[in-house]
Structures are given as structure tokens and as C-alpha cells.
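Supplementary Methods, section 5.1.

A reviewer requested that the exact input to the structure prediction be made available. We therefore reproduce it here, unchanged from the version used in the analyses.
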Amino acid sequence: MQPTLFEIPEQPKKTIILSLHPKPYTDILNGTKKYEYRRKFSKEAVSAFIYVSSPAKAIQGYIEFGMPIIDKIENIAAIAEEEKPGSREGTLAYLDGLEKGFAIPILSIREIQPLSLEELRSDFHFTAPQSYINVDTNPGLKEELMKRLQAFYQAHR
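The structure derived from this sequence is encoded cell-by-cell as follows.
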């Protein structure tokens, strides 16, 4: 999947900061990962700034997600298996104990100028989320991230 370029929507979706490990983030960038799987998530389509965990420790990207598929874990595992053969068992183990899980389609991704954990802590009193947080809880950080996203659009016009 090549990063899709489109304008920032006039009526933006809810925007979150989502934590990912480096490997899944790289897989999304190179187009081999087309869904994000979660135990809990928003029931709506969202946008997400991506915090990439160690060793990167920075917000590095922005993803537009589609409407989540919320279904029985067996069906979510089947989506994962179709996307990446051999992943069914791992997905079932990850979702174990739940009746339903989330498969969230990735519509587009773009990288932004990284914002390091050191900057995030010192300038915005940021703590990396275990899963995700609503960016509206930190208006200063939201403003900075939107500036970086706008810079991406300006550079790619």
C-alpha cells in the first residue's frame, strides 16, 4: 500500500494517539499490514497519530482508519489469517477471553516529522499510552501534531 494523499477533512474524525511496536508500524508503512487488531477500540472510524515504542520512542506517523469490524473472535482471527497466513492462532490467543474483537481497516498512512519522547515529556507532559488516548486531552500537543501533519501536506502538494 502506498501512502494515500488526501486533504485533512473539514469535519475531522475523532483523533487519537495510538501506540504501536516498530514491526507492525513498518508493516503498515510497507503495505503488508492492512488491519490493526485490538481487544478494545472506538466503535467509530478514527484518525490516529502513531507513537512508535522502543527503540524509536516517538510519534512518527498519522493513520486514517475505516469503520472497525467488531465481530466474534473466530471471525476476527479469520480476517487476520487471510491478511497474513499463519496468524490465526496468535490472534485467537491475543483475543482470548473476549466474545468480540476489533479488526480496524487501515485506509492510509503518512509519516510526519518525528516528535521524540523526550520532547513529548518536556513540552507536553506526555506519557506514552499502553493502547491509545484521545489527543483532545492535550490541546498543545494536538496543535503541534496538526502543524506537523499540515507540513506533510504542504511538502507533498
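The longest helix spans residues 139-155. These observations are discussed further in the main text.
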